[in-house]
């Protein structure tokens, strides 16, 4: 239960879905006294056999310790699980995926109830929890003091990345990265659709695709530098005018191969709009500004 005779801090965990259960096992394995609660009690049985104490209500789980980690489906489930629960003096760490606005509101809600609050955005899937080499981590935002105080125990399941006092920042970073991921998945879907029509072996195609995406990924650093400087023409490798000139080829290829271009077209339209402002010598960075409302 202890390593080097240093007592391990207790953790109360609400939520034993795929993610909550994975988190729970790492704290148990590291010797932290763990109290768990789940709306559907059967999901706690396996963890009880592994050493977790099972609380029969969310209130009892919260009462069991100072550090309360919540990993539920969504913000609404957090509100319903903690409704009427005494949070005075608790350190509430909410790892539930929410919007930045929900995270800010939940922080105020927790503070009004006498708790300190940290919000988290998990950049990992359950099999990456407890596997440091998998590279997963959690974005944290909210009270820096609380983060520093609890960082050792929070780092047990997966790495930690503190992104600021604004409690909405963890969710913002989380959603920003996942949005980029979905953009990438959209491109991947289009690419596979093209080769699928032509009967190219997708398994042979996959490494070509993965390697090319990896080679392109560092371009985000150039985009960032241009956004910071405000000069979108520095370091340009493939200018916007050339890229817009190429878009009919992509659309005609999709058409010719019997593939819908519905995932590509909106981005191409933004590129065209930026070009029309006289920005042909720029990189693609100007598209970012067109998205700002
Ligand atoms: N799993 C993943 O790949 C992703 C990785 C990135 C982060 N997400 C977020 O983590 C939160 C939890 O996800 P999860 O994978 O554990 O989700 P489920 O397996 O579906 O478990 C959901 C738990 O939430 C409980 N729950 C749902 N509604 C309520 C409610 N109204 N009151 C109390 N608890 C509720 C549910 O309980 P039960 O259905 O077993 O009774 C589970 O414990 C999530 O925000 C992801 O976006 C995971």
Draw up the topology in text:
Blueprint: E1 11-14, H1 18-29, E2 34-37, H2 45-49, E3 53-54, H3 58-63, E4 67-70, H4 75-82, E5 91-94, H5 100-112, E6 116-123, E7 137-142, H6 144-154, E8 159-162, H7 169-197, H8 202-216, H9 219-229, H10 240-257, H11 265-275, H12 286-291
Parallel strand pairs: 1-2, 1-4, 2-3, 4-5, 5-6, 7-8
Antiparallel strand pairs: 6-7
Helix pairs in contact: 7-8, 10-11
The structure holds ligand FVH.
Ligand FVH binds at residues 15-20, 38-40, 43, 71-74, 77, 80-81, 96-97, 122, 125-126.
- Number of helical stretches of at least 4 residues: 12
Just give the CATH class of the largest domain. Answer: Alpha Beta
| CATH third-tier fold name of the largest domain | Rossmann fold
Just name the CATH architecture of the largest domain.
3-Layer(aba) Sandwich
Order of helices and strands: EHEHEHEHEHEEHEHHHHHH
Helicity, as a percent range: 40-55%
Beta-strand level of the residues, as a percent range? 5-15%
Hetero groups: ligand FVH
- Overall outline: elongated
Structural class category: alpha/beta
Strand order of the largest sheet: 3-2-1-4-5-6-7-8
**Regions with little confidence, pLDDT below 50 for 5+ residues:** none
Tell me the Rg in angstroms. Answer: 24 Å
What number is the mean pLDDT? 96
DSSP, total strands: 8
CATH superfamily of the largest domain: NAD(P)-binding Rossmann-like Domain
What composes the largest sheet?
8 strands, mixed
What distance lies between the first and last C-alpha atoms, to the nearest angstrom?
53 Å
Number of domains: 2
């Amino acid at each position: 239960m202890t390593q080097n005779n240093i007592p391990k801090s207790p953790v109360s965990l609400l939520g034993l879905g795929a993610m909550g259960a994975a988190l729970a096992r790492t704290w148990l394995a590291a010797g932290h006294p763990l109290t768990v609660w789940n709306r559907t009690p059967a999901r706690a049985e396996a963890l009880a056999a592994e050493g977790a104490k099972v609380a029969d209500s969310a209130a009892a789980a919260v009462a069991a310790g100072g550090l309360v980690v919540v990993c539920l489906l969504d913000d609404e489930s957090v509100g319903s699980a903690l409704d009427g629960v005494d949070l005075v003096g608790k350190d509430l760490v909410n790892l539930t995926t929410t919007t930045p606005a929900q995270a800010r509101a939940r922080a105020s809600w927790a503070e009004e109830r006498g708790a300190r609050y940290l919000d988290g955005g998990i950049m990992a899937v359950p099999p990456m929890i407890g596997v440091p080499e998998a590279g997963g981590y959690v974005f944290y935002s909210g009270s820096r003091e609380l983060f520093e105080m609890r960082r050792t125990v929070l780092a047990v399941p997966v790495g930690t990345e503190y992104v600021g006092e604004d409690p909405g920042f963890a969710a913002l970073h989380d959603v920003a990265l996942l949005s980029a991921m979905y953009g990438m998945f959209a491109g991947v879907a289009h690419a596979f659709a093209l080769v699928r029509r032509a009967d190219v072996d997708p398994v042979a195609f996959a490494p070509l695709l993965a390697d090319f995406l990896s080679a392109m990924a560092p371009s985000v650093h150039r985009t960032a530098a241009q956004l910071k400087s405000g000069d979108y023409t520095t370091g340009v490798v493939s200018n916007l005018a050339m890229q817009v000139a190429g878009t009919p080829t992509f659309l005609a290829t999709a058409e010719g191969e019997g593939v819908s271009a519905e995932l590509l077209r909106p981005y191409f339209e933004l590129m065209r709009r930026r070009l029309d402002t006289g920005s042909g010598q720029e990189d693609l960075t100007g598209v970012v500004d067109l998205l700002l409302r």
